[in-house]
Structure formats: C-alpha cells, structure tokens
Amino acid sequence: MHQARSVLPWRAGLAVLLLGLLAGLPAGAQLRLPRPTGYVNDFANVIPAEQEAQITRIVDEVRAKSGGEIVVVTLPSLQGRPASEVALQIGREWRIGRAGEPGDAARNTGAVVLVSMEDRKWRIETGLGTNTFITAGEAGRIGREYMVPRLGQGDVGGGIHLAVQALAQEYAERFGFQLTGEAPGLRQPARGPSSGGGGGGRLLFYVIAILIIFSLFGRGGG
Question: In 3D, which of 82, 102, 65, 95 has the Cα closest to residue 30?
C-alpha cells in the first residue's frame, strides 16, 4: 500500500509535465510548412498549368507596379489547425510583404490566398500595410463572392484566379496603376456603406431631411 501511494503521485506529476510541454510547443511546430516554390505554391496539385500561369502573371504585375506581394498556397490538409492561423504562419515564416522604412506606402503590403482541400477551408489574409486598403471584411467578401462558388464547382484554379484578380484591382486602385488583361467572370460588385458606397449615405440623408421637415412643420403648427 505504501508503494502504491508513492507511485500514483509520480505518474500524475509526469502527466502534468507532459501536458505542459505539449502546451508550450510553438504553433508553427504543429504544422510544418513546405518551402515556398514561388508566388503560386500549389502543394495540393489542384491548379491547372494554364491557370497557374495566368495567376502568376497577375501577381508579377502587382509586384512590379506596387511592390505588393500576393502569395497563393494550396495545401492537402491543415492538420486540424484553423485556416486563419495557418495563413498567418505562412505570412510570417515566408516573410510575405516588402520591407521598408516607416512611411513607405508599399511596406508590408502582402496578402496570402490559402485553400485547403481536405478541410474544404480557405482564407485570405492581409498584411499590416495591406489592411489600410483591403480590410478583413473586404478580403472575406472577395473570397466569398469570387472564390467560394468556383470551389464548390470543383474549379479551384478558377476560383483562386478570380480572387487574385479582385485583390489585384484593389492594389491598382491604391497605388494608381492599370492592370493589363481581364479575368472572365470578374465584375465590380456594388460597394456597401462600409466601403464608401453612396447608396446607404443618400438614404440616410433623405431620412434626416424628412425628419427635419416634419419637425419644422410641427413647430409652426404649435
């Protein structure tokens, strides 16, 4: 009985120690990323060669005219990790986004377009500099509107192509250059009030104007 009492606490302490060591492992150790092969990294082998060439052309044009870096990554699996964490890990480990001095408009203007096949997950992650003109909400909208429908049809390369083209247009507007060529199926969606569209603002203006008119008439009648 004395021996049993001495062994059990030791085993419990060992279990606690192992759990602590596992919890202390860095996030990057849970998923080893392959080495980048370029700006289009099709590790899941799902992008046809022709579409990969088209995507590469867009990425190269954005980098040449603005310094911004758009990196595409397809993975077979995220190994249980959230797409947002993996996209951030890619951005940090691969150092996506040009370095520069404070005040440089092109500093840290990177973006990661991530698609995982087995998990059926995707993510568009933007760098600190890119966040000034492509917000997280806008990146999500681009993914949902342009990439998700094609992914659902099994056209992974086509969905990524459209998403990259939409991102490239945001870079072109921010840095004042024209993109060459067109992506079939890409359209400029109507922007909501959060992105500076005028429809919601005009409606609010009319509502306020009507309230003011009723208020003035009410005061006159009193």
Answer: 82
